[in-house]
Specification:
With 365 residues, this protein is α+β, with helices and mostly antiparallel strands. The chain is 47% helix and 14% strand. It contains 9 helices and 8 strands. The strands form 2 sheets. Strands 3, 4, 5, 6 and 7 form a 5-stranded antiparallel beta sheet that branches.
Length: 365
Amino acid sequence: MGLLRSEDMTHKVLSIGPAMDAKKYVEAIGLGRVRKWEDTPYPSTDLVEVQFEDMNEGEMKRQYKKFVDRLSEVDRMLKAFRDMMAKYPADPQNPNGPGMDSLIVAGQIGSYLEARKQNRIQIVQSKDNSEEFSEFSLQTIENYLSSVKSSVDKLQDENVKVMQAENEILQELKLLEFAEKAVPKNTSDDLKEGLLIVSAIGAVADTQKMTLLRRKVWKASGGKALLKSTGPGQDGDFAVSDPKNPAQRLQKTAFCVYVTGDSLRERLKRLIAADATLYEWPGDKEKVKLRKKELEDRKADQQQAVESCSQVLHAELGVLTGSMTVLNESGSPITMKMNSLIEDFRLFFTTREGSVWNPQSVRAI
């Protein structure tokens, strides 16, 4: 049986048939129920310490591999949920606060065992919607998690879209604030003063890319174009939320490139578009004023859409940070401190089901 054993071990061979009952027998061994089969999942006093040997090591036969793969997929989903929760604040009104993963309650093993004993649970989806399961099983919980993941993925995609639309409005507003100080009062001012009229390309880019952009513009134009922006912390610098990770802020810089000649202008626009978002540069202050008014009206509507989408997504993920309700035989809830739902599911899949199906995969059953 190998080295470093704290107790004397005896080699035994267990023949199981039919194969469909293999899970029942392996689970019974793990729970210590070897002399008497019981309906309760609690272990008896006849504890058994077992080490399984791989009887298929040479041939690599894994009759139950599909069940192990299902457990791995569910474990991957649970980890994805936790990673997703870390990206969204626990309090939507405090975007810089701790993530939703801080709401997960763990360590209440007794509540998990009680749920396994009663084998009847209720999950509250919302104030007026709940779902009841009469069987705490792999298939039941797997289907539930798949349904939740499908719903959350759709909500997350929608949340990314509305946040990107909001960022587009915020970025253009910041560019207009920058342009307001750079453009003339009206389009004829430059002609009156006898200045050379040049065209301008307006854009917003990540602040960390500005040094690279300056080099690219200078090299592509041969020194004939001028990139103008503001320094760190000034009017052109601002931050927006990352649509894919709302807990993070992206530092942006508004800038414009002055250039003469249509061909050079088009070449620089294609160059800048690879690292920045292009916007129409206003010709005078009157155009700035009109465009700002239009964007301010859209900004309020878009912020409301972002808030609504965030609340729905927060509520959907909040079901997993909440706890399930364990029902007794009469259907009444059992009052006790519970784990978060995502933690109970982790215990069920990775701890219990994994310890049952993995040994079967290395057995000649």
